[in-house]
Design goal:
The protein is of the alpha+beta class and 375 residues long. It has a domain of 214 residues: FAD/NAD(P)-binding domain (3-Layer(bba) Sandwich). 28% of the residues lie in helices and 29% in strands. The chain has 11 helices and 21 strands. The strands form 4 sheets. Strands 1, 2, 8, 9, 10, 11, 20 and 21 form an 8-stranded mixed sheet that branches. Helix 1 packs parallel to helix 9. It is globular, with a radius of gyration of 21 Å.
Length: 375
């Protein structure tokens, strides 16, 4: 009986998984891209792609696919309820004008998956679950899936925030801080948004509101905060819309955006965030995207880093599987942590950026972010 085998098996067809699959296939590797879902499918997300993500889409040759289905974003506003407000236009590291995109995650992921489906060298397996890993000693050699075993020289876990593959690889670390949760819902606005179209981040006590235009007359509102604050406010998917409409009566900025707006869909939730990984690579396998660890939503860089790290992972995988100089791939014996760890940590936009420390108040996070970003 012939056993299914590829050079690279990618678990998860979100932005990180698709970027990895495309990068590997374009370097001549045979890739299987698995996802338990059928696309299009909904997924909670902030849905704002900042300039870094736009650059990553362009580098992958995907910007022309996504831009026609997205809303151009011109800048960002940070504000504290009853306190200071800071607004800036988007620009690149050299100060030249740049732009972001607001796009529903359902739409974005479907467009990326279609690009993977059309890519020679990628076999897309929708509705297929990765149930377990296969090992030879300590070396990962493939997957046990819902349709049978799949051998692979490299397994890439791009299976999201609560990655089962990360846990199975023994790379999970316990959270050190109280859990944070998120909810999101889309609103239809009574009128088209006038330029400039801005991402707005409002900090109100322990709760953060993220407002992202995703169409001329459509706004996504995401709410993030500690689990204890959600509990105190009795905030859940069932109560989110009522909470937002109530908060809008008390907060002028939120009220101005939501006046006359109508909720379009069922709210979705995500979390707990602040997932941690012991390492991003082990023998024969590696983590990308949220599976490799949570990146603070306050920066808005999650999708951009997922795309960039996926392509960096593909470059590192090709190097590990090749004899050098672009030669044909050879069987992988060990993925060395050093080069892959470096490749999976691309520099953030703005060389002086400091990491956001979870122990600091969110208003201090805002000051650090505004100081260190080029915009």
């Amino acid at each position: 009986m012939t056993r299914a085998a590829v050079e690279v098996a990618v678990v998860g067809a979100g932005p990180a998984g698709v970027a990895t699959a495309l990068g590997c296939a374009r370097r001549g590797l045979e890739v299987a891209l698995l996802d338990r879902a059928h696309f299009p499918r909904d997924k909670p997300c902030g849905e704002g792609l900042l300039p870094q993500a736009v650059d990553a889409l362009a580098a992958l040759g995907l910007l022309s696919r996504v831009a026609p289905h997205a809303c151009r974003l011109d800048g960002i506003v940070f504000s504290v309820a009853g306190g200071p407000r800071a607004q800036a236009d988007f620009c690149d590291g050299a100060g030249a004008p740049a732009f972001g995109l607001g796009v529903r995650r359902r739409v974005l992921d479907a467009l990326l998956v279609e690009a993977a489906r059309a890519q020679p060298g990628v076999t897309l397996l929708e509705g297929v679950t990765a149930r377990d890993l296969q090992f030879r000693g300590a070396q990962v050699t493939g997957l046990q899936t819902s349709v049978g075993p799949l051998e692979a020289e490299v397994v890439v876990a791009a299976d999201g925030l609560r990655s089962p593959m990360r846990a199975r690889l023994g790379l999970e670390l316990p959270a050190r801080r109280p859990p944070r949760l998120g909810l999101r819902v889309h609103f239809r606005l009574p009128h088209a948004l006038a330029p400039p179209r801005l991402v707005e981040v409002l900090v109100s006590g322990a709760i953060e509101y993220y407002l992202t235009p995703v169409a001329d007359d459509e706004l996504e509102v995401a709410v993030l905060g500690p689990a204890r604050a959600f509990a105190a406010l009795e905030l859940s998917a069932a109560t989110l819309v009522a909470h937002l409409l109530s908060a809008a009566t008390e907060n002028p900025e939120l009220g101005a955006r939501l006046q006359g707006a109508v909720a379009l869909d069922r709210p979705l939730g995500a979390g707990p965030f602040r997932q941690r990984a012991r390492a991003v690579v082990t023998s024969g396998a590696l983590l990308v995207g949220d599976a490799a660890g949570y990146f603070d939503a306050l920066t808005g860089e999650g999708v951009g880093l997922a795309l960039a790290s996926g392509d960096a992972a593909a470059q590192a995988i090709f190097g590990a599987l090749s004899t050098g100089g672009g030669a044909a791939p050879r069987p992988l014996r060990h993925l060395h942590p050093g080069p892959l760890s470096v490749a999976l940590s691309p520099p953030a936009r703005g060389a002086g950026r400091r990491p956001l420390k979870s122990r600091l108040p969110r208003t201090i996070h805002l000051r650090i972010l505004i100081h260190s970003c080029p915009w």
